[in-house]
Design goal:
There is one protein chain. This protein is mainly β. It has two domains: 86 residues, Sandwich (Immunoglobulin-like); 233 residues, 7 Propeller (Methylamine Dehydrogenase, Chain H). The chain is 6% helix and 50% strand. The chain has one helix and 29 strands. A five-stranded mixed sheet has the order 2-8-7-4-5, with no helix packed on it. It has a five-stranded mixed sheet with strand order 9-26-25-24-23, with no helix packed on it. Strand 19 and strand 20 form a beta hairpin. The longest helix has 21 residues. The chain starts with a helix and ends with a strand.
């Protein structure tokens, strides 16, 4: 009896082994090779390679886990990149054969189609700017400038604040000092509220626009640090010093998406203060004199504005780097300034 049981068990294991051994791993690969770069609008030929004698049911191609097409054989699939968001994209091929599925993946980097157009400008007006303000955020609303002044009380920049100033005189009309242990960053005006980020403290403040009273606080865990803010009336855009612009819900400030910013050479880092102007994002590049014009749909840098000659170096003390963009939507006026600059400039892009 024991021998019969042993024989049955042995047979069962042999059958199981036989079933498993039928599932053979096949040598497959995919092109293009990992890390290859393409310009937006350039067609990408994707091709899964496998042994000639393999009888496949289908080859399914996915882009970032979303199906983009299929083939019944090893013929190439062409990916159209005309309107694709830029950055690193994962491409996967799933090969179906004899009831089995095998997959292989690669990644490509999609760059802007061409180099940014270089813009020129002219200065239309020059206004006073408070040199005590280490400008982190700047917005123009209903005839006034709203400014976020960054700094720690224990350091040279001094205590952070939120300010309302008169354009013509630069005079501070209203000010709310921030906790001395907090470094204030970008702001954006949303209806009758002002939203303000902090640098490393992982919190944000929501103020009543009229009184500057803090209405609420929220946890900021989206980016590595809090930098710039702006909004288009439906969503908030947020930078963290990388090449990524986060898209936030305008009501609860949770992340709903992101935009990776690239020019024709690669990622553009240190994106800082933001402004939304006529369907495009304008961004200061921290430590430079450049403002970039970015397509929010794809992340492509469309244009670049070099403001080096606006306030040439060496700069008068205590002026530091360019930072601050404000747009008067009704008057179509563009204002720029810098950290502790003596002036705020109205410029016109040619």
């Amino acid at each position: 009896m024991k021998k019969k049981v042993l024989i049955l068990i042995t047979a069962a294991f042999a059958g199981l082994y036989s079933c498993k051994s039928d599932k053979k791993t096949i040598d497959i690969s995919i092109s293009p090779e990992a890390g290859a770069s393409f310009k937006q609008g350039e067609a990408v030929k994707i091709k899964a390679s496998y042994p000639d004698d393999l009888k496949t049911d289908s080859v399914v191609y996915l882009l970032d886990s979303v199906k983009i097409g299929s083939r019944e054989d090893s013929s190439a699939f062409t990916l159209n990149t005309d309107s694709m968001p830029l950055g690193s994209r994962l491409i996967t091929a799933k090969i179906y054969h004899a009831g089995q599925i095998q997959e292989t993946s690669t990644n490509i980097t999609l760059l802007a189609a061409k180099a940014p157009q270089l813009l020129s400008y002219e200065v239309v007006n020059t206004f006073p700017h408070d040199t005590s303000s280490y400008t982190e955020g700047l917005e123009y609303h209903n005839g006034f400038l709203y400014e976020s002044d960054g700094g720690y009380a224990s350091e040279a920049e001094g205590r952070s604040s939120l300010r309302k100033t008169a354009l013509a005189t630069g005079k501070v009309l209203q000010q709310a000092d921030v906790d001395p242990q907090v470094f204030a960053e970008g702001i954006t005006v949303v209806g009758n509220k002002i939203v303000q980020l902090t640098y490393k403290e992982k919190i944000g403040f929501v103020y009543d626009k009229a009184t500057f009273k803090i209405l609420s606080k929220f946890s900021y865990t989206v980016g590595r640090e809090g930098w710039g803010l702006c909004n288009d009336g439906q969503r908030i855009y947020n930078t963290d010093g990388t090449n990524r612009i986060f898209v936030l819900d305008i009501n609860n400030y949770n992340q709903t998406g992101f935009i990776d910013v690239y020019d024709d050479q690669g990622p553009v880092n240190n994106l800082n203060e933001l402004e939304y102007i006529d369907g495009k994002l304008f961004a200061n590049v921290y430590t430079t004199n450049n403002i970039l014009v970015i397509d929010p749909k794809t992340g492509a840098v469309l244009q670049k504005l070099d403001l080096t000659n606006l306030y040439p170096e060496p700069r008068s003390e205590p002026a530091e780097v360019l930072n601050g963009i404000a747009w008067d939507a009704s008057g179509k006026r563009l204002f720029v300034t810098g950290k502790k600059w003596q002036h705020l400039y109205q410029i016109r892009i040619k």
